[in-house]
Protein backbone atom coordinates (compact mmCIF):
# COMPACT_ATOMS: atom_id res chain seq x y z
CA UNK A 1 0.00 0.00 0.00
CA UNK A 2 2.63 2.49 -1.03
CA UNK A 3 1.46 6.09 -1.27
CA UNK A 4 2.01 8.01 -4.47
CA UNK A 5 4.35 10.99 -4.34
CA UNK A 6 1.36 13.33 -4.76
CA UNK A 7 -0.47 11.88 -1.72
CA UNK A 8 2.72 11.79 0.32
CA UNK A 9 3.52 15.42 -0.52
CA UNK A 10 0.01 16.58 0.41
CA UNK A 11 0.00 14.74 3.77
CA UNK A 12 3.54 15.79 4.72
CA UNK A 13 2.74 19.38 3.70
CA UNK A 14 -0.40 19.38 5.85
CA UNK A 15 1.41 17.87 8.84
CA UNK A 16 4.24 20.39 8.52
CA UNK A 17 1.71 23.22 8.27
CA UNK A 18 0.08 22.18 11.56
CA UNK A 19 3.52 21.76 13.19
CA UNK A 20 4.55 25.25 12.08
CA UNK A 21 1.24 26.76 13.23
CA UNK A 22 1.35 25.17 16.68
CA UNK A 23 5.05 25.86 17.00
CA UNK A 24 4.67 29.56 16.42
CA UNK A 25 1.44 29.90 18.45
CA UNK A 26 3.05 28.29 21.49
CA UNK A 27 6.50 29.76 20.95
CA UNK A 28 8.00 26.28 21.23
CA UNK A 29 9.02 26.10 17.58
CA UNK A 30 7.65 23.66 15.03
CA UNK A 31 11.01 22.17 14.12
CA UNK A 32 11.11 20.05 17.24
CA UNK A 33 8.10 17.93 16.19
CA UNK A 34 8.96 17.70 12.48
CA UNK A 35 11.52 14.90 12.71
CA UNK A 36 9.33 12.72 15.00
CA UNK A 37 6.37 13.37 12.70
CA UNK A 38 8.33 12.27 9.63
CA UNK A 39 10.07 9.29 11.21
CA UNK A 40 7.27 7.90 13.42
CA UNK A 41 4.25 8.54 11.18
CA UNK A 42 5.64 8.67 7.67
CA UNK A 43 8.45 6.15 8.28
CA UNK A 44 11.01 8.43 6.66
CA UNK A 45 14.66 7.59 7.33
CA UNK A 46 15.81 9.88 10.14
CA UNK A 47 18.68 11.27 8.04
CA UNK A 48 16.30 12.55 5.34
CA UNK A 49 13.99 13.85 8.09
CA UNK A 50 16.78 15.79 9.79
CA UNK A 51 17.89 17.26 6.43
CA UNK A 52 14.37 18.47 5.59
CA UNK A 53 13.80 19.81 9.10
CA UNK A 54 17.04 21.77 9.07
CA UNK A 55 16.13 23.55 5.85
CA UNK A 56 12.68 24.47 7.16
CA UNK A 57 14.24 25.83 10.37
CA UNK A 58 16.20 28.35 8.26
CA UNK A 59 12.98 29.43 6.54
CA UNK A 60 10.97 30.03 9.73
CA UNK A 61 13.86 31.70 11.55
CA UNK A 62 14.59 34.13 8.71
CA UNK A 63 10.89 34.80 8.13
CA UNK A 64 10.26 35.65 11.78
CA UNK A 65 13.53 37.56 12.22
CA UNK A 66 12.42 40.01 9.55
CA UNK A 67 9.56 41.04 11.83
CA UNK A 68 11.67 41.08 15.00
CA UNK A 69 14.54 43.26 13.79
CA UNK A 70 12.08 46.02 12.91
CA UNK A 71 11.04 46.20 16.57
CA UNK A 72 14.66 46.83 17.52
CA UNK A 73 14.65 44.37 20.41
CA UNK A 74 17.21 41.82 19.25
CA UNK A 75 20.85 42.56 20.04
CA UNK A 76 22.91 42.17 16.88
CA UNK A 77 26.28 42.12 18.73
CA UNK A 78 25.29 39.45 21.24
CA UNK A 79 23.91 37.43 18.35
CA UNK A 80 27.01 37.76 16.18
CA UNK A 81 29.43 36.93 19.01
CA UNK A 82 27.49 33.85 20.09
CA UNK A 83 27.09 32.72 16.48
CA UNK A 84 30.83 31.96 16.50
CA UNK A 85 30.00 29.28 19.09
CA UNK A 86 26.77 28.03 17.52
CA UNK A 87 28.12 27.72 13.96
CA UNK A 88 31.21 25.82 15.11
CA UNK A 89 29.00 23.61 17.25
CA UNK A 90 26.65 23.09 14.30
CA UNK A 91 29.53 22.00 12.11
CA UNK A 92 30.57 19.46 14.76
CA UNK A 93 26.98 18.24 15.11
CA UNK A 94 26.64 17.76 11.36
CA UNK A 95 29.86 15.74 11.21
CA UNK A 96 28.75 13.66 14.20
CA UNK A 97 25.43 12.95 12.47
CA UNK A 98 27.21 10.92 9.81
CA UNK A 99 29.41 9.07 12.33
CA UNK A 100 26.86 7.86 14.88
CA UNK A 101 24.06 5.33 14.33
CA UNK A 102 20.49 6.42 13.56
CA UNK A 103 19.45 4.82 16.87
CA UNK A 104 21.82 7.12 18.73
CA UNK A 105 20.36 10.16 16.93
CA UNK A 106 16.83 9.02 17.78
CA UNK A 107 17.81 8.54 21.44
CA UNK A 108 19.34 12.02 21.76
CA UNK A 109 16.30 13.39 19.96
CA UNK A 110 13.95 11.70 22.42
CA UNK A 111 15.83 13.16 25.38
CA UNK A 112 15.80 16.63 23.82
CA UNK A 113 12.03 16.40 23.28
CA UNK A 114 11.47 15.35 26.89
CA UNK A 115 13.55 18.30 28.04
CA UNK A 116 11.57 20.70 25.79
CA UNK A 117 8.31 19.30 27.19
CA UNK A 118 9.61 19.82 30.71
CA UNK A 119 10.51 23.44 29.92
CA UNK A 120 7.13 24.13 28.34
CA UNK A 121 5.27 22.88 31.43
CA UNK A 122 7.37 24.81 33.91
CA UNK A 123 6.49 28.40 34.75
CA UNK A 124 9.28 30.76 33.85
CA UNK A 125 11.37 31.78 36.83
CA UNK A 126 11.77 35.51 37.05
CA UNK A 127 15.43 36.27 37.59
CA UNK A 128 16.61 39.25 39.52
CA UNK A 129 18.94 41.18 37.27
CA UNK A 130 21.46 42.88 39.45
CA UNK A 131 23.06 45.55 37.37
CA UNK A 132 26.70 44.75 37.97
CA UNK A 133 28.37 45.09 34.58
CA UNK A 134 30.57 42.19 33.59
CA UNK A 135 33.93 43.57 32.38
CA UNK A 136 34.14 41.06 29.52
CA UNK A 137 30.63 41.85 28.32
CA UNK A 138 31.45 45.54 28.50
CA UNK A 139 34.59 45.04 26.44
CA UNK A 140 32.58 43.06 23.90
CA UNK A 141 30.04 45.92 23.77
CA UNK A 142 27.14 43.59 24.51
CA UNK A 143 25.20 45.71 26.97
CA UNK A 144 22.17 47.32 25.44
CA UNK A 145 18.73 48.71 25.94
CA UNK A 146 15.28 48.06 24.58
CA UNK A 147 11.97 49.91 24.55
CA UNK A 148 9.29 48.96 27.11
CA UNK A 149 5.95 50.64 27.85
CA UNK A 150 7.68 52.28 30.83
CA UNK A 151 10.43 53.69 28.66
CA UNK A 152 13.89 52.56 27.58
CA UNK A 153 15.28 49.76 29.76
CA UNK A 154 19.02 49.19 29.95
CA UNK A 155 20.52 45.78 30.61
CA UNK A 156 23.94 44.31 31.31
CA UNK A 157 25.17 40.95 30.12
CA UNK A 158 26.76 38.50 32.58
CA UNK A 159 28.80 35.28 32.47
CA UNK A 160 29.88 35.42 28.85
CA UNK A 161 32.14 32.30 28.88
CA UNK A 162 29.37 30.10 30.29
CA UNK A 163 26.87 31.44 27.76
CA UNK A 164 29.39 30.90 24.95
CA UNK A 165 29.97 27.27 25.99
CA UNK A 166 26.26 26.53 26.26
CA UNK A 167 25.81 28.04 22.81
CA UNK A 168 28.40 25.66 21.38
CA UNK A 169 26.32 22.81 22.80
CA UNK A 170 23.12 24.31 21.37
CA UNK A 171 24.78 24.51 17.97
CA UNK A 172 25.97 20.90 18.13
CA UNK A 173 22.48 19.74 19.05
CA UNK A 174 21.03 21.77 16.20
CA UNK A 175 23.47 20.24 13.73
CA UNK A 176 22.91 16.69 14.96
CA UNK A 177 19.11 16.82 15.15
CA UNK A 178 18.14 19.42 12.56
CA UNK A 179 16.29 21.56 15.07
CA UNK A 180 16.61 25.22 16.02
CA UNK A 181 17.33 24.25 19.65
CA UNK A 182 15.84 27.56 20.70
CA UNK A 183 15.19 26.12 24.18
CA UNK A 184 18.91 25.67 24.88
CA UNK A 185 19.73 29.02 23.30
CA UNK A 186 17.23 30.84 25.50
CA UNK A 187 18.55 28.90 28.52
CA UNK A 188 22.07 30.16 27.79
CA UNK A 189 21.01 33.77 27.28
CA UNK A 190 18.18 33.99 29.79
CA UNK A 191 19.52 31.94 32.70
CA UNK A 192 23.29 32.13 32.28
CA UNK A 193 23.88 35.53 30.72
CA UNK A 194 20.87 37.22 32.34
CA UNK A 195 19.74 38.86 29.14
CA UNK A 196 16.10 40.08 29.40
CA UNK A 197 13.68 37.42 28.13
CA UNK A 198 12.35 39.52 25.25
CA UNK A 199 15.85 40.27 24.01
CA UNK A 200 17.04 36.66 24.39
CA UNK A 201 14.08 35.11 22.53
CA UNK A 202 14.33 37.48 19.57
CA UNK A 203 18.13 37.30 19.41
CA UNK A 204 17.96 33.50 19.69
CA UNK A 205 15.51 33.33 16.80
CA UNK A 206 17.81 35.59 14.82
CA UNK A 207 20.70 33.21 15.39
CA UNK A 208 18.84 30.02 14.51
CA UNK A 209 19.00 30.65 10.76
CA UNK A 210 22.77 31.21 10.70
CA UNK A 211 23.33 28.19 12.96
CA UNK A 212 21.18 25.94 10.79
CA UNK A 213 22.90 27.19 7.62
CA UNK A 214 26.26 26.08 9.04
CA UNK A 215 25.14 22.47 9.23
CA UNK A 216 22.83 22.59 6.18
CA UNK A 217 25.85 22.87 3.87
CA UNK A 218 27.33 19.68 5.28
CA UNK A 219 23.95 17.90 5.06
CA UNK A 220 23.56 18.96 1.45
CA UNK A 221 26.98 17.58 0.48
CA UNK A 222 26.29 14.33 2.27
CA UNK A 223 23.09 13.85 0.25
CA UNK A 224 20.76 14.14 3.26
CA UNK A 225 18.62 16.89 1.74
CA UNK A 226 16.01 15.29 -0.51
CA UNK A 227 14.19 17.90 -2.61
CA UNK A 228 10.99 15.84 -2.87
CA UNK A 229 10.73 15.63 0.91
CA UNK A 230 12.14 19.05 1.85
CA UNK A 231 9.71 20.85 -0.50
CA UNK A 232 6.43 20.09 1.34
CA UNK A 233 8.14 20.31 4.75
CA UNK A 234 9.64 23.74 4.13
CA UNK A 235 6.58 25.25 2.46
CA UNK A 236 4.19 23.75 5.04
CA UNK A 237 6.14 24.90 8.08
CA UNK A 238 6.74 28.34 6.63
CA UNK A 239 3.05 28.95 5.85
CA UNK A 240 1.97 27.53 9.21
CA UNK A 241 4.33 29.68 11.23
CA UNK A 242 3.53 32.83 9.25
CA UNK A 243 -0.17 32.27 9.91
CA UNK A 244 0.65 31.56 13.56
CA UNK A 245 2.41 34.89 14.08
CA UNK A 246 -0.60 36.66 12.50
CA UNK A 247 -3.19 35.19 14.84
CA UNK A 248 -0.85 35.24 17.84
CA UNK A 249 -1.66 38.85 18.71
CA UNK A 250 -4.03 38.79 21.67
CA UNK A 251 -4.59 35.03 21.66
CA UNK A 252 -4.50 33.14 24.96
CA UNK A 253 -2.11 30.29 24.31
CA UNK A 254 -1.88 28.78 27.80
CA UNK A 255 -4.00 25.70 27.01
CA UNK A 256 -2.49 25.30 23.58
CA UNK A 257 0.97 25.36 25.16
CA UNK A 258 -0.07 22.67 27.60
CA UNK A 259 -1.50 20.42 24.88
CA UNK A 260 1.47 20.93 22.58
CA UNK A 261 3.76 20.23 25.53
CA UNK A 262 1.96 16.92 26.08
CA UNK A 263 2.33 16.03 22.39
CA UNK A 264 6.07 16.76 22.60
CA UNK A 265 6.29 14.58 25.71
CA UNK A 266 4.62 11.63 23.97
CA UNK A 267 6.72 12.00 20.82
CA UNK A 268 9.84 12.23 23.00
CA UNK A 269 8.98 9.03 24.86
CA UNK A 270 8.32 7.20 21.58
CA UNK A 271 11.54 8.46 19.95
CA UNK A 272 13.52 7.45 23.03
CA UNK A 273 11.90 4.00 23.03
CA UNK A 274 12.50 3.40 19.32
CA UNK A 275 16.03 4.70 19.61
CA UNK A 276 16.94 2.56 22.60
CA UNK A 277 15.40 -0.58 21.10
CA UNK A 278 17.14 0.04 17.80
CA UNK A 279 13.91 0.35 15.79
CA UNK A 280 15.08 3.61 14.24
CA UNK B 1 26.27 57.59 20.62
CA UNK B 2 23.06 58.75 19.00
CA UNK B 3 24.63 58.45 15.56
CA UNK B 4 25.75 54.88 16.35
CA UNK B 5 22.28 53.81 17.46
CA UNK B 6 20.83 55.30 14.32
CA UNK B 7 23.21 53.39 12.07
CA UNK B 8 22.54 50.21 14.03
CA UNK B 9 18.83 50.45 13.49
CA UNK B 10 19.15 51.31 9.82
CA UNK B 11 21.41 48.30 9.26
CA UNK B 12 19.02 46.09 11.19
CA UNK B 13 16.05 47.16 9.09
CA UNK B 14 17.98 46.48 5.90
CA UNK B 15 18.94 43.05 7.24
CA UNK B 16 15.30 42.37 8.07
CA UNK B 17 14.26 43.20 4.51
CA UNK B 18 17.09 41.07 3.12
CA UNK B 19 15.97 38.06 5.15
CA UNK B 20 12.35 38.47 4.12
CA UNK B 21 13.28 38.79 0.44
CA UNK B 22 15.54 35.73 0.66
CA UNK B 23 12.82 33.59 2.21
CA UNK B 24 10.11 34.73 -0.21
CA UNK B 25 12.25 34.22 -3.32
CA UNK B 26 13.47 30.78 -2.24
CA UNK B 27 9.95 29.68 -1.25
CA UNK B 28 8.65 30.70 -4.69
CA UNK B 29 11.47 28.81 -6.45
CA UNK B 30 10.87 25.71 -4.27
CA UNK B 31 7.15 25.91 -5.02
CA UNK B 32 7.69 26.20 -8.79
CA UNK B 33 10.14 23.30 -8.71
CA UNK B 34 7.58 21.34 -6.71
CA UNK B 35 4.92 21.93 -9.35
CA UNK B 36 7.25 20.64 -12.10
CA UNK B 37 8.31 17.67 -9.94
CA UNK B 38 4.75 16.66 -9.02
CA UNK B 39 3.47 17.10 -12.58
CA UNK B 40 6.11 14.67 -13.80
CA UNK B 41 6.45 12.21 -10.93
CA UNK B 42 3.32 12.71 -8.81
CA UNK B 43 1.87 9.28 -9.53
CA UNK B 44 5.06 7.35 -8.79
CA UNK B 45 5.21 5.56 -5.42
CA UNK B 46 6.78 7.55 -2.57
CA UNK B 47 9.56 5.87 -0.66
CA UNK B 48 11.79 7.57 1.89
CA UNK B 49 12.10 4.61 4.25
CA UNK B 50 15.47 3.53 3.01
CA UNK B 51 18.31 5.99 2.95
CA UNK B 52 20.19 6.05 -0.32
CA UNK B 53 21.62 9.55 -0.29
CA UNK B 54 21.06 12.05 -3.06
CA UNK B 55 22.91 11.74 -6.38
CA UNK B 56 25.95 13.99 -6.85
CA UNK B 57 24.09 16.41 -9.11
CA UNK B 58 21.77 17.33 -6.19
CA UNK B 59 24.59 17.82 -3.72
CA UNK B 60 26.97 20.42 -5.08
CA UNK B 61 26.34 24.07 -5.88
CA UNK B 62 27.53 24.01 -9.49
CA UNK B 63 25.70 20.80 -10.39
CA UNK B 64 22.47 21.92 -8.73
CA UNK B 65 22.52 25.08 -10.86
CA UNK B 66 23.15 23.02 -14.01
CA UNK B 67 20.37 20.59 -13.17
CA UNK B 68 17.93 23.40 -12.41
CA UNK B 69 18.85 25.04 -15.72
CA UNK B 70 17.87 21.84 -17.51
CA UNK B 71 14.40 22.36 -15.99
CA UNK B 72 14.47 19.37 -13.66
CA UNK B 73 11.85 19.70 -10.91
CA UNK B 74 14.12 18.29 -8.22
CA UNK B 75 16.95 20.51 -9.46
CA UNK B 76 14.80 23.64 -9.22
CA UNK B 77 13.64 22.73 -5.69
CA UNK B 78 17.25 22.15 -4.65
CA UNK B 79 18.23 25.52 -6.16
CA UNK B 80 15.52 27.17 -4.04
CA UNK B 81 16.83 25.41 -0.94
CA UNK B 82 20.34 26.54 -1.81
CA UNK B 83 19.09 30.14 -2.00
CA UNK B 84 17.45 29.64 1.39
CA UNK B 85 20.73 28.40 2.89
CA UNK B 86 22.50 31.37 1.30
CA UNK B 87 20.15 33.89 2.95
CA UNK B 88 21.76 33.78 6.43
CA UNK B 89 25.17 33.84 4.72
CA UNK B 90 24.17 37.06 2.97
CA UNK B 91 22.99 38.41 6.31
CA UNK B 92 26.41 37.85 7.86
CA UNK B 93 28.15 39.49 4.88
CA UNK B 94 25.80 42.44 5.21
CA UNK B 95 26.54 42.71 8.94
CA UNK B 96 30.26 42.97 8.15
CA UNK B 97 29.54 46.05 6.04
CA UNK B 98 27.36 47.44 8.83
CA UNK B 99 30.12 47.00 11.41
CA UNK B 100 32.66 48.48 8.98
CA UNK B 101 30.52 51.56 8.59
CA UNK B 102 30.48 51.95 12.36
CA UNK B 103 34.23 51.40 12.53
CA UNK B 104 33.77 48.44 14.87
CA UNK B 105 36.87 46.38 14.09
CA UNK B 106 36.29 43.79 16.79
CA UNK B 107 32.90 42.84 15.36
CA UNK B 108 34.20 42.87 11.79
CA UNK B 109 36.55 40.09 12.96
CA UNK B 110 33.77 38.18 14.77
CA UNK B 111 31.43 38.35 11.79
CA UNK B 112 34.27 37.25 9.47
CA UNK B 113 34.88 34.17 11.62
CA UNK B 114 31.18 33.27 11.38
CA UNK B 115 31.30 33.82 7.61
CA UNK B 116 34.37 31.59 7.30
CA UNK B 117 32.61 28.75 9.15
CA UNK B 118 29.53 29.13 6.93
CA UNK B 119 31.56 29.13 3.71
CA UNK B 120 33.57 26.13 4.87
CA UNK B 121 30.33 24.24 5.44
CA UNK B 122 28.80 25.28 2.15
CA UNK B 123 31.75 24.82 -0.21
CA UNK B 124 34.43 23.24 1.99
CA UNK B 125 33.87 19.71 0.74
CA UNK B 126 33.57 20.64 -2.92
CA UNK B 127 31.83 23.26 -5.01
What's the mean pLDDT score of chain B?
88
Q: Main sheet of chain A, how many strands, which sense, barrel?
A: 2 strands, antiparallel
Radius of gyration of chain B (CA) equals 19 Å
Number of strands of chain B: 0
| Rounded mean pLDDT score of chain A | 87
Poorly predicted residue ranges of chain B: none
Largest sheet of chain B: none
Radius of gyration of chain A, CA atoms, in whole angstroms: 18 Å
Share of helical residues of chain B:
over 70%
User: How many distinct folded domains of chain A?
Assistant: 1
Q: What is the number of independent domains of chain B?
A: 1
Count of DSSP H/I helices of chain B: 4
Q: Oligomeric status of the shown chains?
A: heterodimer
Tell me the number of strands of chain A: 2
List keywords for this structure.
heterodimer, A: 280 residues, mainly alpha, two-stranded antiparallel sheet, 4% strand, globular, B: 127 residues
Tell me what you see in this structure.
The complex is a heterodimer of chains A (280) and B (127). Chain A has 280 residues and is mainly alpha-helical. Chain A has one domain (5-276). Helix content of chain A is 74%, strand content 4%. Chain A has helices spanning 5-26, 31-41, 46-71, 76-99, 102-121, 135-139, 160-177, 182-192, 197-222, 227-248, 254-276, and strands spanning 144-148, 151-155. Chain A has a two-stranded antiparallel sheet. In chain A, a hairpin with a 2-residue loop joins strand 1 (144-148) and strand 2. The longest helix of chain A has 26 residues, at 46-71. The two termini of chain A are 21 Å apart. By secondary structure, chain B is mainly α. Chain B has one domain (2-123). Chain B contains four helices and no strands. Chain B has helices spanning 2-41, 61-69, 73-102, 105-123. In chain B, helix 2 packs across helix 3 (73-102). Chain B is elongated and about 55 Å long. Chain B starts with a helix and ends with a helix. The model of chain B has no long low-confidence stretch (mean pLDDT 88). Chains A and B meet through helix 1, helix 3, helix 4, helix 9 and helix 10 of A and helix 1, helix 3 and helix 4 of B.
Amino acid sequence: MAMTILEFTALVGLGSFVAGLLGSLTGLGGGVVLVPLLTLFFKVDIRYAVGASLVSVIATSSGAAAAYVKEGISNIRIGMFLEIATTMGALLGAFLASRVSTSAIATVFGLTLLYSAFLSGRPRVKLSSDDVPDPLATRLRMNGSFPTPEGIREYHVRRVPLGFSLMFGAGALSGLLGIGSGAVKVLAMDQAMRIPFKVSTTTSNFMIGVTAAASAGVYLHRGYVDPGLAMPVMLGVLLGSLLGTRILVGADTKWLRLIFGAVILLLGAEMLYQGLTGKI
Amino acid sequence: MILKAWTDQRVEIMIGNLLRAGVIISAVVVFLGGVVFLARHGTAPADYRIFRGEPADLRYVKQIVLRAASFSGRGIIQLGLLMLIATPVARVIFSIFGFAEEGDRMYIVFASIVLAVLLFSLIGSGF
